Amino acid sequence: TIMRVLVTGAAGRLGGAVAAKLKARGCVVTGVDRLAAPQAKLELDRWFTIDLAATTESAPDAKGGDAASLLGEAMHGIEAVVHCAAWPGPSATPPPAVVASGRSSPPVIGLEAILPAKLLKDNVGSTAALCDAAVKAGAKRFVFSSSAFAFGYSHVPAGPQAFVPQYLPIDENHQATPLESYGLSKLAGEQVLSAASRTALDCSFVSLRFTNIVKRERWSDLPWSAPTAAEPLTLLMWAYVHEDDVIDAHVAAVTDAATADKGTHELYVLSAPDTRFAQPTVPLLASTHGLERVRGADGLVGNASPLSAAKAERRLGIKFKSWQQPRRGVHIAASPPSPSPSPLPFSPAAGTPRHRSVPKWNGTRLFALLPTSPQPKPKLESDSASHPATVTTPTRRASTALIAATPVATVATATFTTATTCTAPSLNSVSLSGSGAAHRALSDPNLRFFPLHRFRLACGAELPASAHLAYRIYGPPAQESQGVILHPTSFDAVHDELEYQIGPGRTFDTNRYTVIVPNLLGNGVSFSPSTLSHTLSKEPAATDTGTDSATAATAAAASTSTDTCFFFPLVSVADNVRAQRAMLEAEGVSFPLKMIYGYSMGALQAYEWAVAHPNSTLSIAAVCGASKCGDLNAIFLRSLGAALQADSAWSDEKRRFVSPPTRGLRAFANIYAGWGVGAEWYLSRLYSAAGFFSADDFVERSYEPAFAGCDANDLLSQIRTWRAADVSVHAQGDWEAAMRRIRARVLLMPGDTDKYFTLTEAEKEAEVLGERCVLRPIRSGAGHRAGDPHRKELAGELQHIQRHVHELLSEI
C-alpha cells in the first residue's frame, strides 16, 4: 500500500483537495507549490515552496533557492507522486493562423494570459523534471493531471480549423490531435511518462484526461443553453465532470495498485455520462457542427456525452455524477477547497480551465397535460369548517418538454388539455427562479400537481389559481399495496432527494408499500415565492420582515392576521398537512395510513398529522425532529432570517429579495454550519474523516456551496413555516393536552447532539406519550445531520434508523 505521497499544485483547488483526501486515507502527504502553504494546508506532513518551472535549470529559482535540489529533498522517501501543477488552460493567444482567419470565438472558460510558447515550455519542462526526480527517488506510482483538451481543443468552435473526432464517443484509443499549445503540452507530458515507463520498470504511470471541471458551487448552473449554428461551442466543451469525481479519480489512481502495472503508462478519460445540455446530442451535432455522420454518432442515446469514461468507471471505480441526478440541498461530503484569490501558474489543477462566463439555461418548462387513467371522484368537503378548501382532482404531468428561449408570447398562448377538472400550474407560476434542485425536481415526468386554487390558509390568505401541491407516488396503487407511507420533505429538500430510501428492498419497500412524497409548500416545487405569479387576496402588513415571533399565541391568532411576505403568505405546517390530506382523499387513499415518516421539518408535519387527525395514521416516525419549534430553535431560525435580510438585495419596500443575496446566503450558510452539526464534529475534528483540512475548510467547501444556489425568498418562506410550527394550537395552547390527542404509535429518533431539535425535547415528548412511544436516539457527532446517507462514515447511523423503522412497520 502506498503511504508517502507528494502532491504538486497543493495550494490550488484540485491539488489541495487531493492532498486532503489522501491525508484522510492515512497517507503521509508532502505538498509542493510555488506559493507558500496556505493556512488550510499547514496540516499536511511536509510543505515545500518550489517553482517547478525553475527545476529545468540549474540556476536559483525566483525564491533564491536551487529549485532542482529542493525538489530532490522533497522527493526523499516518496512512494507516489500526483502532479496537478500547471498552467491550467489554453493560452488567450490563439494560433497565428486562427488569428489570421478571424474565426476565433469569445471563450466560455478562462484562458491564460501567457504566450503559447511559455505555456508549452513550463508545462512540459516541469513534468519532465518531476518525472525524473520521482524515478530517481524510487517512486512506485506517478499520476499526471492531463486534459481531454489533448484530443483537440480549438479556439475556433466549428469549421475547418476546429476539432473533428474520428469516432464517437471518444475514448482512450482515440487519436490525440491537439490544435493549440495547452493540449499539446498535456499530450507531450503524457509522452514523457510513456518514455519513462520503458526504462523505469519498477514504476507505473497514470494520466487522467478530464474535461472542463464543474465546481460544486456552479453545479446548479447546469444544464446550459444548447449551442446553435450561429453560436456553436467547441465539441470537447460539451462534456463536463464534477470536481468530486476528479478528486476521487486521482486518489484511486494513487491508492489502487491495479490502476497500472509496473513499467506501463495507463490513460483514463474522466467525464460525466451526458452533455451540459438537456437536448439530444445527435441532432445538436448535426445542427451546430454537421457531425451527424461521424462513426458511432448514431449510437449516442439522448444527451449522451461525446466522451466515454467507461474504462475509468470500470477500473477506477468512479460512478460519474450527472446534473440530471438528485442533489441534496445540504450534505457534508468533501469537495475541493476554494480557489486562490488570483490565478497563478502551477496552482490550479492541470486541465481545469476557470470559468469566466457561464451561459445560463434560459429554457422554459412546458407542461403538456395529457389524459391519464381515470381519477377518483373529487371531494368538495373540508376537514375544517373554519378553513374550507376547494378540492379538485390531482393531475399527473404526463410529459415535460424543455424549450430553449421560448418567446413569452408563445408560451402565454399555450393550451392545456386534461381529462380531469383541474388545471396545471401556469408557466408563469413555474418560473426559472428557484433553486437548481427545484428546477430539476420540476422536470420529473412522474410529478403530480394537486391544485390549491382558493385554498384558505390559517393566516387568512386565499391562494391564487396558480397554487399547487407537487408530489410523487412510488410503488403500486394504494389499493394493491400493504399500506400507504407518507414521507413529507424537509427544509430546502425536494422529493427526489428522498429516493435513497424508497424502492424495492429499501427502507420503504415499494414491492410492498405505496410511498407518497409531498413537497413542502415554499420549497420551490410546490407553491412558493419562486413560483408565485399572482398577487394574493391580502396584501402584507408594512412592518412584517419575515422573522417575527412565531409563538403559539401568534399562530392561534393567525387566522385574522395579514402576516404575509412580499405578497406571499405565512404558510403553516398545519396548512401543509391540510393540503396533503385533501390530496390523499382526491387520490382515493384510504385512512389510516401505514406510517408518516418525517425528518426535521418532515417530523413537524408527521406530528401535526398525528395531533390534528388522530385516526389518520397507524404510526409516525420522527427523525431529528419534534412536535413544535422550541424557543432555542426559533432563535436559530431568527438568526438565519436576519442574516439573509441584512443583504442589500432585500427590499423593505417590496418586501422581497430583488436580486440574489450573495453575501446574505454566505452568512446564512456560515450560521447554519455552526448549528447543523454537533459540537463533537468540530471539537473532535470529525470533519477530517470526511476529507476536510480544518473547520473553516469544512464550512467553505460544504455549507457555503450548498446554499449558494438557493432561492432566498423560498428559504425565508420555509423559515417562517418552521418557526410557526406548534401542535398546541389544537388544544388552546396546552402542549401536553395536544400530545395526548395522538393515537398512533410513535417512533422518536432524535440525534443525541442535535442542537435545535434536541434530545431533551424528545425525552419530554416520550414521557408524555408513554407506552405509545419508543425512543431510539441516534448516537452521532454529526448533530442534525445524523445518519446522512451521503456520508459513508455515518452508514451505521443510517442503518440504526432503517432497522427501527422496519421493526415498527412489521409490528403494525
TrEMBL record:
<feature type="region of interest" description="Disordered">
    <location>
        <begin position="327"/>
        <end position="358"/>
    </location>
</feature>
<dbReference type="InterPro" id="IPR001509">
    <property type="entry name" value="Epimerase_deHydtase"/>
</dbReference>
<feature type="domain" description="NAD-dependent epimerase/dehydratase">
    <location>
        <begin position="114"/>
        <end position="263"/>
    </location>
</feature>
<feature type="compositionally biased region" description="Pro residues">
    <location>
        <begin position="336"/>
        <end position="346"/>
    </location>
</feature>
<dbReference type="GO" id="GO:0016747">
    <property type="term" value="F:acyltransferase activity, transferring groups other than amino-acyl groups"/>
</dbReference>
<dbReference type="InterPro" id="IPR008220">
    <property type="entry name" value="HAT_MetX-like"/>
</dbReference>
<dbReference type="Pfam" id="PF01370">
    <property type="entry name" value="Epimerase"/>
</dbReference>
<feature type="region of interest" description="Disordered">
    <location>
        <begin position="370"/>
        <end position="394"/>
    </location>
</feature>
<feature type="domain" description="NAD-dependent epimerase/dehydratase">
    <location>
        <begin position="5"/>
        <end position="90"/>
    </location>
</feature>
<dbReference type="InterPro" id="IPR036291">
    <property type="entry name" value="NAD(P)-bd_dom_sf"/>
</dbReference>
<feature type="compositionally biased region" description="Polar residues">
    <location>
        <begin position="385"/>
        <end position="394"/>
    </location>
</feature>
<protein>
    <recommendedName>
        <fullName>NAD-dependent epimerase/dehydratase domain-containing protein</fullName>
    </recommendedName>
</protein>
<dbReference type="InterPro" id="IPR029058">
    <property type="entry name" value="AB_hydrolase_fold"/>
</dbReference>
